[in-house]
Structure formats: C-alpha cells, structure tokens
Design goal:
Number of domains: 2
Radius of gyration: 25 Å
Low-confidence stretches: 244-256
Structural class: alpha+beta
Strand order of the largest sheet: 4-7-5-6
Order of helices and strands: HEHHHHEEHHEHHEEEH
Strand content: 5-15%
Distance between the termini: 42 Å
Largest sheet: 4 strands, antiparallel
Helix content: 40-55%
Shape: elongated
Mean pLDDT: 87
C-alpha cells in the first residue's frame, strides 16, 4: 500500500515523484544502501522498479522450511492468477511491477489525476468506487463483497452490543443471556434500532450468538423494535472463536 501511504501524506504530488518515493521506500525495505548525498529525484530514478509480487523468503534449511517455502510460492502464484483473471477481463495489462499497481489504481478510480495545472497531480479519491462498480466479479464474489461491506458497516456496533455481555475488568463473559429488545439495545448503545438490528445479525452470523423467544430461535430481521427477546451467547463458542477483551485492567508485574 505504498502509494496510498505516500498520497495520504503528500496529496497532489505528481506521478513521477510518487514513483520515485515508492522506489526509495522499496529499496530501504530490501536493505539497499542508499547514497544520501544524491538528490532525491536522481536517487529515485537510479533505483530499479519494485516488483508488485515480492518473492517468498528463501528456505534456510530448517526442518519443514522447504515445504513452507513451496506452500508460500504456490499461494503467491494463486493470488497472481486471481489478479490476472480480473485484469484480463478488464482488458488491461497484467500487474507485475509496483508502478503498474499505481496505474491500476488510477484505472479503477482509486486515485484521481488532476491535470488542471499540467503536472498530473495525484490524490486519493475522496469517494472511491465500490469493487462491484469497477470489477468484473462473479455472482459469488459480488455476494462476498456485499457481505464484507455489511460487516464493515455494522461490525463496530456489534462489538458494542457484545460488550454488554463482557466484564470490563476481567474480559470474561458476565452473562450468557440478555432479556432485551431492539429499542433497549439502541438506548444502551446510543444508536438507532434498525442499526442495532443489523448489529445483532452480525453477531448471529458469527455463530456464537442467537436471538431467541421462549427458547426458540427467531429471525432478528422480523423483530419489531419494541418486541422482547433474549440475546443468548454460547460460552464454548465464544471462548473458542474470540480473543478475550480486557479493558482498563492493571498491568501486574514483579518488582525490579
């Protein structure tokens, strides 16, 4: 994500200087000794183009290291093939260098080009398009993207609902059942009942929570905001699937 970081720090930089900065960053990560007496533009132009797909670390001879290396190589090739399939369907060149990544981001409108002053200044798009708007996705990929956006939108609120079950000090569950309603959850989390409905659905989708009435599961989508129901957590699945959250717990350490 070099280009995103560069343009976040230095918006309206022209393409040539963005490319130079990325080459310098890439060389530093690779451990290249850079001549600090050389002018930045000359230094950037002298460095090689960074690959878009770094090679896995070579095996060191440790047990199972060779197999791990081969697995990483195979995974790298799998990801390249996935990207190649998308770029082929878009009718654009395959991405093999970092600078081609920059061109791809411009093509997909993730980066805007301002040519009003003739210097082709780049900046991050203020309203970037959704993947489903610019990529030739399959129905399965579109469904996955839609679900990801849904989780991203309501995931944080889902965590606020979850915290109603967690002891702030120990990070352990303080209850397994909460008799409530969407209206009550909205008041407890300072949010809207319809947003809470989706947050409850996020928790249910993750598998360790369920919405119940009289012991039978109910669909949170069909609940009326004032309707009472029990939000129930399965402790075994909760502890198996989640990392314990501990807030404001004092650090205990031996004296020096």
């Amino acid at each position: 994500m070099d280009f995103e970081e560069i343009l976040h720090r230095f918006p309206d930089t022209d393409r040539q200087n963005v490319v130079r900065a990325q080459r310098v960053w890439s060389a530093r990560r690779a451990g290249v000794e850079l001549d600090r007496t050389v002018a930045p533009d000359v230094l950037g132009d002298s460095l090689p183009v960074a690959p878009a797909w770094p090679n896995p670390t070579e095996p060191t001879g440790e047990p199972d290291d060779e197999q791990a290396y081969q697995d990483e190589l195979a995974d790298r090739q799998r990801r390249i093939n996935e990207y190649d399939e998308v770029t082929d369907r878009l009718g654009i060149p395959q991405v093999r260098t970092a600078e081609q990544v920059l061109d791809l981001m411009i093509t997909l409108r993730l980066i805007e080009v301002d040519m009003s002053h003739g210097n082709h200044a780049l900046r991050l798009a203020t309203n970037p398009p959704l993947p489903t708007e610019v990529l030739p996705l399959s129905p399965e990929q579109r469904a996955e993207e839609d679900k990801g956006r849904w989780l991203s939108r309501y995931g944080r609120l889902a965590q606020r609902v979850l915290r109603l079950f967690v002891d702030d000090v120990s990070g352990d569950l303080s209850r397994v059942t909460l008799a409530t309603s969407l209206d009550r959850l909205a008041a407890a989390t300072d949010s809207d009942p319809e947003d809470v409905r989706h947050a409850v659905q996020v928790l249910v989708e993750e598998g360790d929570f369920s919405a119940q009435r009289q012991g039978a599961r109910v669909d949170a989508e069909r609940l009326v905001p004032h309707q009472r129901f029990d939000l129930v957590v399965d402790p075994d699945r909760f502890y198996a699937d989640r990392i314990s959250v501990q807030l404001n717990r004092p650090v205990e350490r031996s004296d020096y």
